[in-house]
Amino acid sequence: MAGSTDIDLTPDVLAAAAESKAWPFEEARKIIARYKGKDWPDTILFETGYGPSGLPHIGTFGEVARTTMVRHAFRVLTGDKVPTRLLCFSDDMDGMRKIPDNVPDRAFLEPHLHKPLTAVPNPFGGDYKSFGDHNNAMLCRFLDTFGFDYEFASATEYYKSGRFDDVLVRAVAHYDDIMKVMLPTLGPERQATYSPFLPLSPKTGRVLYVPMKSVDAKAGTITFLDEDGEETTLPVTGGAVKLQWKPDFGMRWAALNVDFEMFGKDHQTNAVIYDRICNILGGRAPEHFVYELFLDDIGQKISKSKGNGITIDEWLAYAPTESLGLYMYQKPKTAKRLYFDVIPKAVDEYYTYLSAYFRQDWKDRLNNPVWHMHDGNPPKVDMPVPFSLLLNLVSASNAQNKDVLWGFISRYSKGASPETHPELDRLVGYAIRYFDDFVRPAKVFRAADDVERHALTVLLEKLETLPDDADGEAIQNASLNAARTIERYQDHSKKSPEGGPGVSGAFFQMIYQVLIGQERGPRFGSFAALYGIGETRALIEKALAGKLAA
Questions:
Q1: According to the model, what pLDDT value does residue 292 have?
Q2: Which phi and psi (to 5°) does residue 200 adopt?
Q3: pLDDT of residue 320 exceeding 60
Q4: CATH among 1.10.1040, 3.40.50, 1.10.20, 1.10.150 for 1-161+292-379
Q5: What is the CATH number of domain 450-544?
Q6: For 448-458, what is each residue's pLDDT tens digit?
Q7: What is the pLDDT of residues 424-436, one digit of tens each?
Q8: 208 close to 200: Cβ distance less than 8 angstroms
Q9: Where are the alpha helices (DSSP H) in 184-292?
């Protein structure tokens, strides 16, 4: 995800890219079609927007990650002959309309409501001068963690330095046209006071939502009543005035010649407004990609100000960065719940895709998420134990350190060690931390009923017939044979290899509830092979003796 400069452009790659239906390629083709029959500009500009009213969250990261994937696909489709840039734009001149829930001292910020975020003092401490500067720095730190190739842009700096002046003067000249776009979208009460221009009060420094007394296109000024009732005239240039957020979108696109920007579904109904204002101001609206929103564990939209959902730092405490990249790649147009339970699945899916990549032809490789995540250069990683198995190993063994887990792993995968498998060693650390924080508190062992006790006794007898080095397949077959003797677990809709009834999933669910204290787990044969035949038999004996549920 680093936006690397080295791109594999062999004929096989180019041919596969031309046919690929992966969504980054589909979006990149829209940009190519945009310039069909025209000369390429000096640079194709990809942009993402960020509102620093709260700390950056994973949704912000996802927007940059996904845009980076489209940018890479564009470079491949164009033979990397067209220069590109990714601009991460912070709307840090917006007024702080409410105090976020996740700041350390809400009272400290109360006197600064409605001031630009870069004029609000920093409540977090440290060297950052303002609330906006702090949150911008957090955004850059997060993005740098992932190695993104991007340029950071501050609305405050762009407004004050005059980079928007020409388009802002144009906005004064087209004031009536902008109002014709905006007023039909507002209610009667809001229509009476609305203005696309938000002056900064020379007296209080606050961003004012006030109607205009007059707009002078020739002078490039606006006149309004300041908070104390005094009639005040300001130039729209030099950072004395900013635009409302909807006109600001279109203005920025026109001023910077943005070619591509994606945004969440909550912006979708406003996209036509952004486009029309961009066109009014002499620009050409960029290509859009609308993604579905991220939800927390109860289905509510995640929010910077609420601080719900998972932060980037929280995800990275329990899983490698690549798992988060995969989560962002998958189904961007489907609403996704973003909470801690999704992490183990994302980890295992990443390594599954990575393992498959090197066995695939180029057509399948370019449809594999890891190709897009790693800018066409996925790493080779040997991962003999999936994350879900590690979690269950921690759970069964009550391991508190890596050495204990590596004792099991080295026996299971001959020759494996932290030195030979550093990536697996990383996962071992994540597994211990994830188990301690999320799995252990929720573990509930239950006692087996009479039928289940009989089933476990039969399973124990089957396992006692196996050698200590039996592999996962042999253990799984022994488990299935044990279950087939118990009427409760016979599934007559399935057939065993011998033609008898199959085994219902309830059998293995029972095993995990009684032996591990969890509702579900990975394939039992694989778990038992990793944990060890002897250790698994001892675990069953503890359950039968009532020691686990106790």
A1: 87
A2: -95, 120
A3: yes
A4: 3.40.50
A5: 1.10.10.350
A6: 999 999 999 99
A7: 999 999 999 999 9
A8: yes
A9: 188-193, 245-256, 271-280
How far is it, in rounded angstroms, from Cα 257 to Cα 167? Answer: 11
Amino acid (1-letter code) at residue 458: V
Measured CA to CA, the distance from residue 139 to residue 147 in angstroms comes to 13
Q: 290 and 268 in contact (C-beta within 8 Å)?
A: yes
| pTM confidence score | 0.89
For residue 415, what are the contacts with CB-CB under 8 A and spacing of at least 6? none
Look at residue 412 and tell me whether its pLDDT is greater than 70.
yes
DSSP assigned state of 453:
H
pLDDT average, residue stretch 116-139: 91
| pLDDT tens-digit map of 28-76 | 999 999 999 999 999 999 999 988 887 677 778 889 999 999 999 999 9
Q: Which element (helix H / strand E) includes 260?
A: strand 260-264
Residue 151: enclosing H or E segment and its boundaries? strand 151-154
CA dist., res. 14 & res. 8, Å (int): 9
Amino acid (1-letter code) at residue 117 = L
Report the C-alpha gap between 333 and 139 in whole angstroms: 24
Q: Where do the domains of the chain lie?
A: 1-161+292-379, 176-243, 387-439, 450-544
Contact 265, 271 (CB under 8 A): no
Q: Report residue 335 as tokens.
A: 């609403």
Closest CA to 64 of 157, 146, 155, 8: 146
β-bridge pairing 44-50 and 214-216: unpaired
Select the more confidently predicted residue: 222 or 520: 222
The CA-atom distances, in angstroms, between 345 and each of 316, 348, 386 are 14, 5, 10
Measuring CA to CA, which residue among 305, 338, 248 is closest to residue 56? 305
Match domain 176-243 to its CATH number in 2.30.30, 2.70.98, 2.30.110, 3.30.420: 2.30.30
User: Among the residues of 53-117, which ranges form H helices?
Assistant: 58-77, 106-109
